[in-house]
Specification:
By secondary structure, this protein is of the alpha+beta class. The chain has one domain (12-156): Beta-Lactamase (2-Layer Sandwich), CATH 3.30.450. Helix content is 33%, strand content 26%. It has a 6-stranded antiparallel beta sheet, with helices on both faces. Helix 1 (12-27) packs antiparallel against helix 2. The longest helix is centred in the first third of the chain and has 16 residues, at 12-27.
Length: 162
């Protein structure tokens, strides 16, 4: 098994290179979706400044909480609501430097200050989203979204229910 081992002082590019290698190694040969998402959430939680990391799965029209690391979270998010619902509806990554400035932000954690959400898409179907929160303003940028989009592509290839 590949271990998640970041060198001290690594920059974001190095961190994401290691994250993606770790993610691939974790899911190789493991067919269980929840086990894979749980391990990936644990990896994501170790990214710099991340206070909450996890997945929401699309169930019917809603996004329903999946494996995560962090404080208690909203269980169900309606289509187009909050950062997660908006990212899923638009089918694009959203970087929110200040969640207080995002119209309709859902405050699951009062300490959350910034967020990045990336949809997990297979073909025409949105399977869910990757959601990262930080208790720091502007902790995420477009580079995070770009790297997390690569992770979302890997996650989309897992064995999701029909």
């Amino acid at each position: 098994m590949h271990t998640w081992n970041l060198p001290a002082g690594a920059d974001r590019a190095e961190i994401y290179t290691e994250l993606l290698a770790t993610a691939q190694a974790l899911v190789d040969g493991e067919p269980d979706l929840m086990a894979n998402l749980a391990n990936l959430a644990a990896c994501l939680k170790q990214l710099p400044g991340v206070s909450w990391a996890g997945f929401y799965r699309r169930v019917g029209d809603d996004l329903v909480l999946g494996p995560f690391q962090g404080k208690l979270a909203c269980t169900r998010i309606a289509p187009g609501k909050g950062v997660c619902g908006t990212a899923a509806a638009r089918r694009e990554a959203l970087v929110v430097p200040d969640v207080e400035a995002f119209p309709g932000h859902i405050a699951c954690d009062a300490d959350s200050r910034s967020e990045v959400v990336v949809p997990i898409v297979r073909g025409e179907r949105v399977l869910g989203v990757i959601d990262l929160d930080s208790d720091r303003l502007a902790n995420f940028d477009d580079r995070d979204a770009e790297h997390l989009t690569r992770l979302a592509a890997l996650v989309a290839g897992l064995d999701w229910p029909a």
